Amino acid sequence: MATQACAIWGDDLVHYDFGLGHPMAPLRIALTARLCRDLGVFDHVEVVEPGEADDELLATVHDRDYIASVRSVSEQPHLADGSNGCGTEDVPAFAGMHEASARLVAGTVEAARRVWQGEAEHAVNFTGGMHHAMRDRASGFCVYNDIAAGIRWLLDNGAERVAYVDVDVHHGDGVQEIFYDDPRVMTISVHESGRTLFPGTGWPADTGGPGAEGTAVNVALPPGVVDSYWLRAISSIASPLVHAFAPDVLVTQHGCDTHRDDPLAHMGLTVDAQRHAAVLLHRLAHEVCDGRWVATGGGGYDLVNVVPRAWTHLTAIASHQPVANRTELPAAWREHVQSTLERTPPETMGDLEPSELPIWVQPWSMGYNPHSEVDRAVMATREAVFPAWGLDVWFD
Length: 396
Fold this sequence. Notes:
Elements: E1 3-8, H1 27-38, E2 46-48, H2 55-58, H3 64-75, H4 97-116, E3 120-125, H5 146-156, E4 162-166, H6 173-178, E5 185-192, E6 216-221, H7 227-245, E7 249-253, H8 271-288, E8 293-296, H9 307-318, H10 331-341, H11 373-385
Parallel strand pairs: 1-2, 1-3, 3-8, 4-5, 4-7, 5-6, 7-8
Keywords: Acetoin catabolism
Pfam family, one: Hist_deacetyl
GO molecular function: histone deacetylase activity
């Protein structure tokens, strides 16, 4: 009998470590796993420890010369010169880089396999989500693209269409580029505009290559967007397009660097909005894909206040045992944070007061506001993509 959900986790996953002072500290996932355990979320999922992806699996989305170069850097990090993207400020080389990166790929591919083969309805790999890695180079803290490998595995094993929705603050450029010419994959990225944030890509006019027009979807939002407007953008784009595309599986990336406290971006969101987005995408998987849902982590650099809460919510939602926003954080977890990091963690699983919940999201059907920067960004995307799917630009 299939489990409701599985979660990818094992202590070896913390070896994806760029060193002291790097924003993508493995502490963020260690604290997430500890919170999932202390809060009882892991009691409702099957916890799966991944192996390590071999070169054949990696080569489904990466050039073999690139894989060989990562292996070389992994064995002799002091010789990295940045030519393959490794050995830069963003992606410092470290011993064991290949093995640690390949383990993330194995986790997301195993999540995809379990969902596709019916062993789990939903699967979460909050250690994955390396959406910037390109076919031939590392980029933006990402060495191998575990999401692309998971999607490719699904396609190679019988899935006819896969929809990918990315709500990280940064454009999901690596996944988009790998599948830009493939009409079987729809990539939807809702991100802060490239005018103000890395990687400087992801424009509404980027809609897919020849024969795949309308399958690349980009919503470039202005800085400073808050909860209700961000959720309006996701629901006004992802929901109608995923319904129209009718995928077999929904794959999502839940980078939580959209939070107002994230040090690397400029958005104004709460954990409550990130939880709301996970609920929305979970519901979408049930509406369109018979529940087949693979969810990953991604960016997120407030290691204590944001990442553990956001991805514990994600895992709990996948288990059909969601955690209420006002749930108190376990005393053991808070004491661990205070004793090891000398930081005072939040007290509850949400940021908002009860009087501020639920977050009200204005549906697109209530009308387009040309004075709103967010609405203009959403409209630019709808105008670029919706006609290809026979959808009305103005009304849902």
